[in-house]
Amino acid sequence: xxxxDQQTTTRPPSDPAPGGGSGxxxxxxxxxxxxxEQGHTxxxxxxxxxxxxxxxxxxxxxLRSLRLHHEHSSPAxxxxxxxxxxxxxxxxxxxxxxxxLHTFRAALDPHWADQLRAELAWLSGVLARExxxxxxxxxxxxxxxxxxxxxxxxxxxxxxxxxxxxxxxQGRAALxxxxxxxxxxxxxxxxxxxxxxHSAALQALGSSRFHAVADAVALLASDVPLAPGTTGRTAExxxxxxxxxxxxxxxxxxxxxxxxxxxxxxxxxAAWHQARLLLRLHRYAHEVVLGAAAPALASxxxxxxxxxxxxxxxxxxxxxxxxxxxxxxxxxxxxxxHADQRHEVEAARAVFRETWPYATAxxxx
Length: 365
Fold this sequence. Notes:
By secondary structure, the protein is mainly α. The chain is built from ten helices and no strands. Helix 4 (110-148) packs across helix 9 and helix 8 (269-290) runs antiparallel to helix 9.
């Protein structure tokens, strides 16, 4: 693991000077997650030669995913899975374009970058809701089944274990009374929300606003509007904003609540969500500057995605429990489900701490 005062992940490793050090020394200075990776050599390329191809490539992915989405969303097509995959790819390209416009705004036409970034954020948010509601429903229903399922058999000859198993069986029986109704309530609420999100997504994809976004991305695929004076600058100019994005991430992780904090304190969730967004911006900057993803950040990024999913699932269970005139058994099952998802929140935080590749920022008081 690296300390933040060592070489940052977004600065390409420089070649050792002839006779200036051994191969072991050069390896020690290379970030572990980039060892052996071929990246851009900032001194040999211009800003345009590094940033423009990345944006054009993501714009091409956006347009390709849009074409696939139209093909698989037609009435003659019954492949809902293919349409969902095309939507995910569309959102993926939109996020990368938007994140790059945010991080490297100084190298681009600022008015154009701000406008397109805001429109891509709107589009990605609209398209994400349907998938989020579907995943939330699946997660909560599966958790209910696990919580209300049969108890595990206790070890023979252990009286205390037998009493604990009997108590657990009684608790599961009490939970099972309301679990079915709780699942039905969640399914009604989240299916309705998903249906509305699907309608909103279809309306957005047919709007003049979306067609303006698609036209702007189509132009980006052939021409990247750079800021005046950027064309002749070396790619070193991209390192400063990329490193600022990394330092913002390090600061956000350093400010995260400690490991022994209360998992039910929902006021702490915002800090973790902010760290997730900053990690995403850092990953995209890494792709631009070094020409490849950072494999060491994949696991902690996945943990923060699971954290977000668990937080939103717990909030959905709590919102359902506030439904007027529901049976006490149903409210009890939803309360147990909420507690289970909050424990999943803490588990995701623990995974993030274990997989975070920096040897700092996780012991802050």
